[in-house]
Amino acid sequence: MTMDKDISPSRDEVADPDVINANAHADQQPDTPPAAVSPPPVPQAAGRSRFHESARAQVQGAAIYVDDIPEIKGTLHAAPILSTVAHGRLLGVDTAAALAMPGVRGVMLARDIPGDPLLGNFSHDEPVFAQDSVQHIGQVIGVVVADTVMQARRAARQVKCHIDALPAILNVHDALKAQSYVLPPVFVRRGDADAALKSARHTLHGTLEVGGQEHFYLEGQIAYVLPQEQNQWLVYSSTQHPGEIQHWVSHALGIDNHAVRVECRRMGGGFGGKETQSGQMAVWAAVAARKLKKPVKLRMDRDDDFLVTGKRHPFAYDYTVGFDDTGRLAGLKLTMAVNCGFSADLSGPVADRAVFHVDNAYFLQDVEIASYRCKTNTQSHTAFRGFGGPQGMIVIEAIMGDIARQLGLDPLDVRKRNLYGIGERDVTHYQMKVEDNILDPLLSKLEQTSGYRLRKQAILAWNTASPVIQRGIALTPVKFGISFTATLFNQAGALVHVYTDGSCQVNHGGTEMGQGLNTKVCQIVADELGIAFEQVLATASDTSKVPNASATAASAGTDLNARAAQYAARHVRDNLAQFVAGLDGCGAGAVRFQGGEVTTPTGSRPFTEVVKLAYANRIQLWSDGFYRTPKIHYDKTTLTGRPFYYFSYGAACTEVAIDTLTGESRVLKVDILHDVGNSINPAIDIGQIEGGFVQGMGWLTTEQLVWNEKGQLSTHAPSTYKIPTTGDVPAHFKVDLWPEANREDNVFGSKAVGEPPLMLAISVYEALREAVAQARPGARVQLDAPATAENVLRALGSL
């Protein structure tokens, strides 16, 4: 028997005409704030699948990334000097051999930093360059600057660092014993977990370890810093947060923020790895550029990128859960130990979001959660798609599977038994009411359309007849909170310029990393003005245009920036409406913008003609827009309140097979039903869902980070670190969109789509655990993630 033979019911057995067609939102209208004086046009651009705004340029190889920007004459290149010791006292640095090499212009160390020698957005605890000590293998001690990239890299290897080695802490277990933390532990309690566990009919204790994940963006970390006049600086950076780079560079150079301009046209992927980590590259290049008074570019090679930059946070869990005969939770005590690395970076907010998401879709009545933010001598771990949400969700899903197997119940029935309710059992453990709950109908719909029950019966028959290849199936939900948990970041600005030929340019504080943000913003602006999508151009993110912008992260890029751009365009439209109303003797509310025409009760004019007339009459044809997310608030000391504006929901049904002799596994089929509200661009949203799922699948199956006993990351290249390839994507991969607008007042009635789909891949992990359980009836399933072949064999008792 083969692993991928189809044993499922036919499509006709499970078809459901009510599941949404991806293009069914074209007639939905965006919301209109009270300030508008003219009615909103009927959407023509938003709600339809459009090509990514730079797709053709990318396919042709014509899209410009930072390394493609023509270099100024005299540009120098920097390469990092890396620590080869996980923990030790830095006694000295011998640069003589490096300085004697051809093309080398200088070596920058901590003493060359003219301003603040520390980085960090929350704890401010990470040295620009190592000073008196080194904290992990790969920590940057300085940079070598030379005429060419290869000259700099070769010379960096010749720098001799004298380090007195000290004992290193390399995992959370040792960190817990040593009470080594980057931040104090956090505790969240509701009810009386101890009493609930004592009175529960059943209890279960378990442990779980889940590894980190390398971002593996296609375009590596890079920054290009150019000196300007009067001690001003231009920084080209592949970054999700130009504003933070502006602040970090200015602080390191000891100058005001306004003297640093940061530009990012696009990134070749980010996934959170360019939220804070890209700032380090820019600072290193800027320090060198200032000292040498030359433009400096720093482009990391892939090996160094692996060794220097942080990953998704690895987690370790210990839990005790109580439940009744039906599988409904009675009480839960959960400890989460987070491997933060050597500095705080974003570990506090990541760990907080994990705490917020340990419920996933389930009501926790009596619960006690302890979150330990452990300091280890490894890279400083950072943001990664999901930002702690995946690490929170996976443990409660593992608990649901364990409960079901102990009781002999279907895991889906246990999951449905514990879902949040409507009007009751609807408040999270952090005191936020779940107001937009669609969990039960969404899961029931996917249960039907995926043929879950019929397929489960077929899998049982298969496993009975196949002693070697065992299959499993799981259907798991996702409830993911949308907003930055740091409330101040939930704001955005945008500029919209309309030119006299009727074309439009929009600039906003978000950054394009391939996710289609600029495309969606252009669709929204086009509809606000009633013009064609092709008439709108989104320009590079630039700190000199929209200041103090938040990172493009937390799945909020479109929610924030498209809304700000919508408001800016609306201001321009209202200016034009009042002008045309004066021409035609009607109220501004009677002026319509649609299909490139401006219509009043007395006639119609082309939009381009109206713009020319308006310019001739000195009417303002540009405006700014500002948006801040409403309703959100929470107490950071108790982790209670309303940290999220709304929740995004989804579910995935995944079927897998494992080879019980080798431990190898394969994902056979995936059916997804996901909630994106009214989709601004269905093709882009479906692509995000598919890509997020596959990335999550890699995290939980093949992508294994291994540090050896000396603290060296052994898996630091594609030869040893295995991301999913095209061949790993299941042939049956079906994505449908849930047919309902966002119940909160969001741009176009849409919902965020960047991060939630990654957590749909937890269904892969749970399906693998089901397959292991099928192979070992009655045995407890202990499968750590990623579920590599070795870990599967361990779970099978074969190692």
Structural notes for this entry:
The chain is α+β, with helices and mostly antiparallel strands. The chain folds into three domains: 149 residues, Aldehyde oxidase/xanthine dehydrogenase, molybdopterin binding domain (Aldehyde Oxidoreductase, domain 4, 2-Layer Sandwich), CATH 3.30.365.10; 172 residues, Aldehyde Oxidoreductase, domain 3; 336 residues, Aldehyde Oxidoreductase, domain 4. 29% of the residues lie in helices and 24% in strands. It is built from 21 helices and 31 strands. The strands form eight sheets. An eight-stranded mixed beta sheet has the order 3-7-1-14-11-12-13-22, sandwiched between helices. Strands 9-17-16-15-10 form a five-stranded mixed beta sheet, sandwiched between helices. The longest helix has 28 residues.
Task: Summarize this entry quickly.
The protein is of the alpha+beta class and 799 residues long. The chain is built from 21 helices and 31 strands.
Secondary-structure map:
Layout: H1 11-14, H2 55-59, E1 76-82, E2 88-94, H3 96-99, E3 104-108, E4 118-119, E5 126-127, E6 133-134, E7 140-146, H4 149-156, E8 160-165, H5 172-178, E9 181-190, H6 193-199, E10 202-210, E11 222-227, E12 233-237, H7 242-253, E13 260-264, H8 277-292, E14 296-299, H9 302-308, E15 315-323, E16 329-341, H10 347-356, E17 367-375, H11 389-407, H12 411-417, H13 439-449, H14 452-465, E18 469-482, E19 491-498, E20 504-508, H15 517-529, E21 536-538, E22 541-542, H16 557-584, E23 592-594, E24 597-600, E25 603-606, H17 607-616, E26 622-628, E27 633-635, E28 640-642, E29 646-659, E30 665-674, H18 682-701, E31 732-737, H19 756-760, H20 762-775, H21 789-795
Helix pairs in contact: 7-8, 10-11, 11-12, 11-20, 15-16
